[in-house]
Amino acid sequence: MIKSEINEIKSLFDSIEEQGIYRLAGCYVNAEKQKVQTFNEKFYNLPEEEMHKYLEIFKKTLSGTPGKNLLDMSFIDQGTDDVSSGKGLLKKLVSSELEDESVLDGFFDKVIENYNYVGNYLVLVIFQSYDVPGVTSDGIELEDASEEVYSFALCSICPMKLTKPGLGFDDDLGEIHTLKQLFAAELPETGFLYPAFNDRSSDDMEVLCYSKKADVLQDAFLEKVLGVPTSLPAKQQKEGFTEFVSDVLGDEADFDTVLTLQENLKDTVKEIKAESAGNAVYFDKDTMRGVFEKSGVSEDSLEKFDRKFDDQFDMERIHSRKNESGIIDEELDNSPARDYVPTAQVEEKLFADNVAPTRSLEVRNKNMVLRVNSNHTDILEARVIDGRKCIVIEVTDDLTVNGVPVEG
Question: Which of 59, 75, 86, 231 stands the most exposed, by the fewest C-beta atoms within 10 Å?
């Protein structure tokens, strides 16, 4: 889903009048992974104040950056709609409009079994229908020209935290007393939208997954509950790619080669975005290898590329190395996926914004940080001056030092 499609569904939660939620179901889970309470009711029967609180949660589940917090994911097993599969279970949730208690119980049980969280949490699921308005070729919405009814389930998993202790006024007694601490629902940390809303239409082959922390994904939840492949979080993609480039280039990693590689990454992103009408851009192995070839990398380095790409970015290999040698990465070790080994064999794709300098290029050493607009990297030049390797930048008329204009 592109940003505009996400925002279109997200806007349904701006007001009670527009939301169109038919049913709300939930399960409160304690720290011992026990169901404390479940509920299932028509949303419009709730008090208005509660509706607003729920809308805030659902809206947050569709917030963030596509490709980082919001991930389009295809099912591992597209060929089955059996309720034991992720796709089959989600389809049943939607087709039953959350009215089948056995399906809901099965879904909650799967979440409890695979969601890794220390503490109490609340699982919320809604069923909603959206009468998708038609649009003209220039993007004007046609109110009376509905093209389809998009029916979907949105799930939000929220931590339940104790309220702060303190003094408060008791209206009934008219006295000041110590406030009773309660478990209160916070904004969601994990969630999903199914089916996806691709090309402004229902797409039951994909699910949009939400993670509050882009650097920590719930691998077991993704694969065992939703039936989608595990993926490397944004931070690991960025750091892993930096290490990968350094390993592949080796002695070839001079300033000009690395700068050319970064420029070609940026140009490739622009080309893909132009062809995909603004969709999030991902690099698969072949596309990334093409960038390295275009950048003039030697055949020896390309052979390293072929050997190292899978080793660096394949989730199963990463967890296998961790099990053999201990901690690979502090963030990975502290993540909910630390004890989980993925089983699905799916090619890893790297989100372009995690590895390509679309806005700026950073040049750094221990004494300096230099950021250059990625569209104007031609102002940098590597030269040997008085026997020393130098980066040369032209002094222009608009140059300032701490805001003070200096003469060229």
Answer: 59
Give 222-234 pLDDT, tens digit per residue. 989 998 887 777 7
d(CA 122, CA 26): 7
Instruction: Decide: 62 and 26 in contact? Cβ < 8 Å.
Output: no
Write the secondary structure of 360-404 as one string of H (helix), E (strand) and C (coil): EEEEEECCEEEEEEHHHHHHEEEEEECCEEEEEECCCCCCEECCE
Is there a contact between 91 and 206 (Cβ–Cβ < 8 Å)? no
pTM of the predicted protein model: 0.75
Q: Which residue has the higher pLDDT, 372 or 273?
A: 372
One-letter amino acid of 20? G
DSSP state letters, 266-313: HHHHHHHHHHTTTPPPEE-HHHHHHHHHHTT--HHHHHHHHHHHHHHH
Q: What H or E segment, with its residue span, contains residue 133?
A: strand 120-135
Closest to 92 (Cα-Cα) out of 402, 366, 84:
84
Taking each helix axis from N to C end, the angle separating 315-325 and 299-313, rounded to the nearest 10 degrees, works out to 80
pLDDT band at 238, cuts 50/70/90? confident
